Amino acid sequence: MESRELVTHHEYVSHSMPHGICISDVDGIVSHLQRVGRTLLAPSIDPRTGLERLFAHETSEFALNYAFLASIDLETETERFEVVHGSHELLSPGTTVPLSETYCRKTIENPEGTLAVSDAVAEGWQGDPAYETFGLGSYLGTTVTVADEPYGTLCFADTGARDESFQDEEKVLIELYSEWIGFVLTLREEPLARETRVDTIEGRAVSSDAIDSMMNALTDRSRRDVLMTLLGDTTETGIDVLERQLADENARVGLYHRHLPKLADSQYITWDDDAGTISRGPRFSEVQPLVQLLNEYETDSPE
Predict the structure, then answer these.
(1) In the 8-state DSSP scheme, what is residue 232?
(2) How many Cα atoms sit within 13 Å of 109 on the Cβ side?
(3) pTM (2 decimals)?
(4) Angle of CA points 42, 150, 70, to nearest 5°
(5) How many CB atoms lie within 10 A of CB 299?
(6) Rounded to the nearest 5°, which phi and psi values hold at 176?
(7) How distant, in Å, are the alpha carbons of 72, 73, 159 from that of 108?
(8) Using CA atoms, how far apart are residues 255 and 150, in angstroms rounded to an integer?
(9) How many other β-carbons are positioned within 10 Å of the β-carbon of residue 192?
(10) Average pLDDT of 181-190?
(11) What CA–CA distance (Å, rounded) separates 204 from 198?
């Protein structure tokens, strides 16, 4: 992946991104997602309302007029707009269009799963059915997966071109939102798009504290580092390995007295103190997509 992003309560040195989003690093990313999760995507809010609020908030942050969640049917080669923000004559909830006429066809084909078009004309999209049909001069979209199966795309767009190219931090944000939307949709029994109000997910497989639990775990760099050691093919690691990564004795004390207990209590890890090892806990799969994204962002970001 090329990107990732968030925002918390502690101080950080921020830099200004184009169009108003101010986030410095992975700590800033975690903070932003924590705030958005609590205020826009909380389990007490039904997913449709949460998405509508998210779109209204983040289109303002991105300075883009439109946002939408679309499902894609590869058999019929069509795209259906499920939740839409912004007044565009062709972007309407429930509308189905040929996939061949959308930017999203390129999004799902992209090996990174994300497509950014900052200036469609300058980047050679004139004559392409996507540009000719919808007239979108800028587009940022990423794929959405539900229960390990392709679902569709999450997109922000505008008829005008961007003054500056999309930044990695902006790509990170949309990818993280995609992970969350996929997670929520995986828990649902009904389709997201309905004419009537959908039920909330309160009391389902995810508790009302799930977002806070994940964000609290990821807000601290040491806890992120612990979880990152369990990515990929590594399902267990020695605590001595973790200790060697820490700079001083205070950090090692914090590992034993704060970070490992917190992660174990959240069931993201299983801590075997006698064996001196940690392994993936029963709820590791819940937080794993976000840990993976943050790990890729930290790896790809220049020092």
Answers:
(1) T
(2) 8
(3) 0.64
(4) 65
(5) 10
(6) -65, -40
(7) 10, 12, 21
(8) 38
(9) 20
(10) 70
(11) 14
Sign of CA dihedral 216, 218, 221, 226: positive
> If you average pLDDT over residues 98-108, what whole number do you get?
96
The model's pLDDT over 215-249, given as tens digits with 9 standing for 90+, comes to 778 778 888 889 988 988 888 988 888 888 776 77
- 78 has which bridge partners? 73, 98
Kindly indicate the confidence band of residue 6, based on its pLDDT and cuts at 50, 70 and 90. Answer: very low
Alpha carbon of residue 227 to chain centroid: 17
Long-range contacts (CB closer than 8 Å, 24 or more residues apart) made by 254-263: 254/222, 255/222, 255/226, 259/220, 259/222, 259/223, 259/226, 260/226, 262/216, 262/217, 262/223, 263/217, 263/223, 263/226, 263/227
Q: Which two tokens stand for residue 175?
A: 């990818």
User: What is the rounded CA–CA span in Å between residue 259 and residue 239?
Assistant: 12
First to last CA, the chain: 17
What pLDDT digit, counting tens, does each position of 133-176 carry?
Answer: 999 999 999 999 987 788 999 999 999 999 999 988 889 889 88
| Structure tokens that stand for 226 in this block | 């612990």
Closest Cα to residue 131, out of 155, 159, 154? 159
Q: Give the confidence band of 16 by pLDDT, cuts at 50, 70, 90.
A: very low
pLDDT per residue over 75-97, tens digit each? 999 999 999 999 999 999 999 99
